[in-house]
Amino acid sequence: MTGFIVPALWSMIAGACLATGAIHLGPALKPPRQRARLAFVGLVASVAVLAVLQPMLAHAPDAERYGALRKWSQVPIFATVVLVVVFVRSYLGSGRSWLANLACGAAFAAVVVAFAVEPEELSAMRWSAMEGTTLVLLAAFVADAGIACWRNGDAADRRRAVLAAGSILVALAIVALDVLVIEAGSVHAIYLYALASATVLGALGTERGTRWNDPQQDRFRLVLEAASNGLMIVDKRGRVGVANARAARIFTYPAAELSGIAVEELIPGVGIGGSRGAALLGLAGREVMGRRKDGSQFPLEINVTAMESGDGLTTLLSVVDMTERRRSEDLLRRERGFLRQVIDIDANLIFVKDREGRFTLANKALADIYGTTVEDMIGRTDSDFAHDPAEVAAFRRDDLQVMDTRSELFIADERVTDSTGKVHAVQTIKKPLIGPDGRVDHVLGVATDITARKEAERELGVQRNEIAHLSRAMMVAELSGSLAHELNQPLTAILSNAQAALRFLERGDATPSDIQEILRDIVEDDKRAGHVIQGMRLLLTKGEARREAVDLNAAIQDILRLMHSDLIYAGVNVVVRSGDIPQVRGDRVQIQQVVMNLMLNGCDAMHQLPQRQRQLVMATTLDGDFIRVDVIDRGPGVAPEHAAKIFEPFFTTKGHGLGMGLSICRTIVTAHGGRLWAEDHEGAGTAFRFTLPVLSREAT
Amino acid sequence: MSVVCLVDDDPSVLKATTRLLCAAGFEVRAFQSAAAYLAQCDQAPGCLVLDLHMPGVGGLQLQQILGLRGDAAPIVFLSGESDVPPGAEAMNGSAVEFLLKPVDATALIRAVRAALGHAAAGVAID
User: Fold this and answer.
1) What is the complex's ipTM, to 2 decimals?
2) In chain B, N or C terminus with fewer CB closer than 10 Å?
3) Which element (helix H / strand E) includes A317?
4) How many angstroms separate the CA atoms of B1 and B27, rounded?
5) Chain A residues within 8 A (CB-CB) of chain B?
6) For A644-682, what is each residue's pLDDT tens digit?
7) How many Cα atoms occupy the beta-carbon half-sphere of A77 within 13 Å?
């Protein structure tokens, strides 16, 4: 029976062991490395070898062959002991080193002895004593490791402790029994040993949910993988031991391949190839060039931590691929440069100041004004450059206001004196800059130099005044007939009164009250003449355009008085419809010029009409924020082909005149912020209308 | 003595001229417009002193109207302008004098006297 069963059983056990090993070998080799699983595979293999050797021992034909087999079997026994130690330590994460060393030492001593003694003495050796010592030490180690794991671990760890330590101890007990039985001379008991060992190993190997990783290593791995940097542990020979996936990615190696690679390969030229890990410490915080698998180089930031471990000094390298950062830094630098160019090319003065008034940004235009360089301005204040303390105080006040109120400020006109002493007029917008913490401690300003514009405006004003004066002179010329008449009337009255008085006195029948009355009339007429002169002088006064409150109705009445005779000569009946209107803001004389011009035009337009139809309507109305003045004649109207041109300079349909009147009127009205236009009036005549802004309440 | 009628739209001129002619001894009636004259004066005066330019009906127009009515009173025109309008003279054969404002008392009184004399002569001829 046994002659058939036993070989078959041994073959099955060996096959089962090898199959189990093969199942675990694949996963064991995949990263992350599972040391416990690898040890388990080795263990299974060595047990398989022992399972083959055992029946050979049992059936050894002679003592010499038996001795030789016994000698060689010490090697797998030693391997088994070592692998049990490795397995237990990595699987349970516990176990005393000295016990492990003793067990391994005993097994190794057996190997040494086995190969040292003469072959003829081998069969006579007391194997059981040596094997027993090894067994006891190993059992003690396993039991201690199991207890330690039970004590320190959680429920899962306890289960592992019972399963691993328990099954190994059971196997060791069976083996010890076997040794004793063999010692007693019964060879058949040997089957028990192999069977038990294989069963225990099988139980471990097929146990579902077995955690093959060392829990300590598990946690270590987790920490390693969670790190945002690439992490590599480099051993004292300068080779990569453990590395996380990020490190592998950085160097573009497959995750499993990084281990065992010399650091010199990854960080060339650092001269640490064969040196001690301590040399790596010199790299701390440095930026070096890393080399990818394909040989391409890239910037690498490296940090080094020394780690004292059982294997001597190892180092933890933390690496960061700087390619992206470099690239974004480059991009940032380029964008900065571009922005710099843009703000420097800008003719506006651009700056940012902090709460203390120090420039954190300034452009070339501003630096030019201050006669310095952009670099020189940063960190300094207006008072370091500006000539006029009053200007600096104004800038400072506005800056603080913008930052304190957190609102934009528009300064329509302020002064900046440049380094040559020239005063610039600038228009400035200041904005608060809100920081990431929500606080405002910077102010951004953009100032436009409006010196030239103001100069041009001033020149335009001068021109406008000149044109106004010219037009006034022209108007006075046109009015001269009327003015002469207006002067003539009081002069006539004065002369007649005076001569009448003389005659009364000559006749001797004049009473003093008669003479008094005459003299009073003379005074009145004289005053009247004086008013005419004054009005004419006012019209001819050359001066800057003024902005004052003007009562339009009164201004129109004045013009009507001046034009009284002209209107009589022209045979024009004027109808005035004065609305109840507020005052406007403007130059009274200029406005009167416009009114007079439009009235004269209206009179001219009705020249051909029978006298009774010559009616000119003057009306003032409030129209929103504007006062509208209408001057409506009953003339033939403006020919459609002329409608677009009547406001152009030098356009005239009259035989006389320069054609400047309406053009000047429009210039004046526009300068006042109003509008002047003409339209057909109910098919009979033309309405010239102009608007002037009402004097706003806050301007009064 | 015949009445002198005075028409001028300017009140102060009208008043002063009236005063002057009164001082010269004439009986004067003053009117501020042609319309007022036509409405209030139903019999022809010895002489008319008219302002040439007045709003509405002017001196020349009044002369035309009087001509149409058959009133042939001699007229002294007073004008602020030196140029005399054409066709203003010798309407209906009535004597016409043009005087420039401001008019001197002597010239005005002589013209009025002449006009009154002319009127008296005209009556005498009839």
Assistant:
1) 0.89
2) C
3) strand A312-321
4) 7
5) 481, 484-485, 488-497, 499-504, 507, 518, 521, 524-525, 528, 565, 567-569, 573
6) 777 776 667 665 555 667 877 888 888 888 999 988 887
7) 29
